[in-house]
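Blinded run. Sample ID left blank on purpose so nobody reads anything into the name before looking at the predicted structure. Input follows.
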Amino acid sequence: MTIALYMDEHIPKPITEELRRRGVDVLTVQEDNRKGISDVEVLNRAIEIKRVIFSQDQDFLVEANLCQTEGRNFTGVIYARQTRVSIGDCIRDLEIIAKASEAEDLANRVQYLPL
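Blinded prediction complete.
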């Protein structure tokens, strides 16, 4: 089984496109007609559609931490600080995670990139 990713609104398009070329199941917030919604709504939508969020927005770390503190389940967040990881490294690491992980491996946790 592979991980399905839900790309936050500001993820560079080349990351999404290359992951798709590599066979990774990716859906963007824009394609899901959710552009402009709050981080909480993105997190809730990811839960609803059973996808792990990939974001470069530090606010998702706050939301994930809040879920963990309050004992609320979420599908997982993969986070990469934009200034510390290249597009190529994001693609490589996201492909590894998507193809080598199970949904329960990322449930209720934050995975930081680079690996």
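Unblinding after everyone has recorded impressions. The CA atoms of residues 36 and 52 lie 19 Å apart.
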